[in-house]
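Give me structure tokens for this 572-residue protein.
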Amino acid sequence: MAASGCGSSGDEVGTRNAAFPDKKTGEVNCEIVKGEGKGLTSKDDCPDNEEGNKSLSSVKFDRLLQPGTSEKIELKAKDIHATNFVPDRIGLVDMGLSSLPDIVITAFGDSFASGEGAPATNHTRWVDSNIAVDDPRWPAQIERFEDPLWGPLYCHRSPRSTFAVAMEEIARNSFPGVRLAWRSFACSGAVARNLLDTNQVISDRTSLDGVEQDEWVHRPQFAIAEDWLASIGASSSVTYMNIGGNDAGFSDAIKHCVTTWSCEDRHTDVIEGFNAKARNEIPALLNEIDQALTSSEWFSQEGAVVYSVVPNIAFADGRACGEDHDPGNRMQSFPEDELSSAEVDYLWRQIGIPLQSSMRSTANANGWNVVEVDWADHGICSTEPFVNNNVAATATQGADMVDWGIDLSMGNWHPNADGYENWARALEPALIRAIDEQVAADTEIVAVSLDGPNLFYEYSLNALNDGGIFSYIQRSTNVLGVNVTCQDGRSSSHRYDYVFDPVSADQGGEIVKVQPCGQMQIAEVTLKQKNCFLGEMHWCGEDGMGSARQEVEPMLRAEDLEQNELEVRIGD
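Here you go.
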């Protein structure tokens, strides 16, 4: 690291090549630092004075690495901040919480993200004056209309959702020892603006929990998430989303075709309007979401976004489902029996395919991790369906849709539990990659300096995760590699493993002293250090690197002296 200089103390044998500039201003600090996390200073870069001419060996360093240092992390038998798997009342895990999380994962979206179609319990309930909270049972307390953990009942968040199933599997098996917290803010019926800045007005559900009112108002999902994250003193570094289906109007298009004879031939202007939304509005909305995440304070600027493209829910055996193509015998009752294969094919070509294309291309352009599942043989009419028809949805979720005045379920044309399970298996690798990127901390070698036999270097960690530097104190190992040439001309390599445990967490690093040549002067050194979380070598951040050299008086080794004597005798 080149020094900007504070003056000159004159020529001197053994000058050091690097001063330690201030991290903020870039200027060399000519005060000898007493281990307070500021930059060290080589006296050659400072004016002549008693303080400035002190040797670096007088600097109070945070740590001295002895030869063969190999410290190990000693994790407590019970981590009081470990992930707490929060189950609903029948034992399915809907979220995980930690009192001091390393990583926080949030989820947002519409009914395909919340778990509509697969409530926590399957219990037949036909239409009546009220939706009983426990019949079917969405994971919320019976005593209250809105639960502080799982949110309002009308959002239909389920522990069988893609996100909940994937996160439980990941937390139990992929990140042992990592403190995770996750929560879904998805709400059935949401459109993209309901994530950003617009309240979601809910008026298409029957009464909930005995509460008789015409509508409910749900705040924007990002705002609710921000409040929750503030309450636990964290940010989110990984987020999952599935949004856009309602913006493109796919469910409205299905309703239109159910009530319109041969909708592929009549009123095509309506479907073309939905097509335009899928092609033009979805990209703009997803871009706006990306900008909101980028500019937010609650989402890490180094964070990762995982985004699901809606699957093909309308095909089986290579053809669009309909009352005239029904291998699973699932299109023979209302409202499915009002749809022909030609109508469904038309809907999918006009709305489904453009919607998928817009989701995929925009997410990729924004650098999101894109997840897709192939359900071409598992659509609503399949013999192995991943999608509910109305009969199945009503049997498991109940007749909770009041638009038609007959027994209809909001879970119709939504994934069933098998579908969400299949989707979760595809989501898991993407979430694992995203979380893995956030676990490790990158190392920066701030400065390197030599003083006779002493190697001094200052490093800091750049934490990408939500827990900040506190996640790594006494829970990560620094792996230091030193390549050195000593005064006698010998070169050697050394490794030191030591637990990250700074004097003050505010420093984010330490000042370290090493004597790789023993008491012999160091001629030249290069070093490389990385930090590995929980001592696991696959959770290591980017290396920090540095080098330094100093002028030293050549030292003849014993064998060199013997060789010189031999040459003299031969010459004589």
